[in-house]
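Internal tracking record. Fields below are filled automatically when a chain is submitted to the structure queue. Please do not edit lines marked as system-generated. If the sequence contains nonstandard residues, flag them in the REMARKS field before resubmitting.
Queue: standard
Priority: normal
Entity type: single polypeptide chain
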Amino acid sequence: MIVLIARYHIKPGLRDQVEDALRLMVAQIKASEPSCPLFHVCRSQDDPNMLLLYEHYVDEQALHAHRETPHFKELVEGRIMPLLEKRERELYKLVIS
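SYSTEM-GENERATED OUTPUT FOLLOWS
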């Protein structure tokens, strides 16, 4: 299992737009990506403009396929990324569950 942690630093005043797009993203993932069994979006308690995404993919191929979906390109690349100050990503391998 591949774990992706992403941190979204949102430009001030744009959090609702990012969260709305992520709600659509989660719905698309649940409907069409069985190889992504977990996709959580968490808001920082210390900084309301900081989101943490916690995602599971069955393997590297599933992660690559996720990045090629129309909903990823439209929602993440098209809508969300322009609203961010920065995006940080880290990949892990799940070893204990």
